[in-house]
Amino acid sequence: MVQQQAEILRPETLIDEFKKNGVTHVITIPDSETNYLYELMLDEEWMDVVPISREGEAPSTALGLNIAGKTPVCLIQNTGMMEAGDSIRGMALDAGFPLVMIVGYRGWTRRGATPDSVAKYTEPFLNAFGINYYLVEHDSDGDRISEAFDEARSTKRPVVVLIGDEYHGFNR
Amino acid sequence: MIDGMEVLKAFQPHRGNALVTHSGTTGRRWGEVSTNENRDLRLESSMGQTTSAAFGLALGMPDEKVVIFDSEGSLLMNLGVLASVAGKAPKNFFHFLLDNECYATTGGQPVPNAQGIDYAGMAKSAGYASTHHFDDLEDFVMSIEQIMQEEGPVFISVKIEAEVQNLPMALRQRSGGRSRTETIQDFQKEMGIPAP
Asked: What pLDDT score does A30 carry?
């Protein structure tokens, strides 16, 4: 149990990674798993939290910020990512800007079958779009977030960080 | 109903240094009127999302006025953006809606409840700082200078005539001009923003 607690992905790790990578804006729709992260982000003066109404707005709002020379990230859930498909296509993949999208992996389970269809389709969705992704389940995986930023910058493409839902400690 | 080009022409003298982008059939003709193309951005792509891109631009460049000529067909595909804009309340955001009551680019089919929607009322209810509605060109001409001095987010809906396109896509003349990538590159050069 103690070991499991130590491994839990802390929201502070995400914020540290954002700061390390010069993030200026976090475009987000809060979900049931990220409330504590949301509250922590609001306390950080160096980043601006941009709440949106539906996930399709995330890549397009990010494009405007990118054009302005800022460094946005999108923080959404896999359900919303699928809703945002056309915006990901037109406003991220076709745009030629680096973009990291942090995506809550609802339904993720390391063992056995998931009862949640959104988990079943998440990785096939990303593969269909040709978007590379990194799975982050534990705090020790945090440096993969910087890898995602590095890849986004070098390829000028969107890169996704999937947050393995089963393990994280974002809600308290 | 107003000729949409007359709206664009009436706006042009009051543009100042504003950054301008657009969606929809009439908004696309802004390039015929603009006299400062390095501050124009062509961001059209995903359905209804140009407005969100303009919103992001306004957040990222708070010292510059950002103008979008939106269309009601696009707005209906991304209505939540009204709340998103109102929530952050960028003072530099000017949201023009050129409402021709139809999908002009697909043959002129009416949008849902085409004549029954009060878009300025929706923006006001969402929380825009200032909203206006025009169905008379003279009123628009008389008001636009004052509107551009207002604190945003400002929403201006204008009833315009439809410029219906009804040819199959393969037979249509391409609009030409700069690509989206070229407008972004020219814009960033103009503004001294390093390329990513």
From this structure: 81
The tally of domains found in chain B comes to 1
pLDDT digits (tens, 9 = 90+) for B56-92: 999 999 999 999 999 999 999 999 999 999 999 999 9
Closest by CA to A133, choosing from A87, A88, A86, A67, is A88
pLDDT at A169: 53
Structural domain includes residue B96: yes
Low-confidence ranges of chain B (pLDDT < 70): 174-176
Q: Per the CB < 8 Å rule, is B49 touching A60?
A: yes
Question: Quick check: B196 and A96 CB within 8 A?
Answer: yes
Fill in the amino acid letter for A75: L
Separation between Cα atoms, residue A93 and residue A99, nearest integer Å: 9
Q: What residues make up the domain containing B58?
A: 4-191
Of A66, A67, A87, the CB nearest to B46: A87
**Architecture, CATH, for domain A2-164:** 3-Layer(aba) Sandwich (3.40)
Q: Tell me, what amino acid is at B122?
A: M
Is B111 part of the contact surface with chain A (CB cutoff 8 Å)? no
Closest chain A CA to residue B61: A68
B165/A contact by beta carbon, under 8 A: no
Tens digits of per-residue pLDDT, A123-147?
999 999 999 999 998 889 999 999 9
B196 within some domain? no
**How near does any CA of chain B get to the CA of A98, in Å?**
7
Q: How many residues does chain B have?
A: 196
Number of helices (H), then strands (E), belonging to chain A: the values are: 8, 6
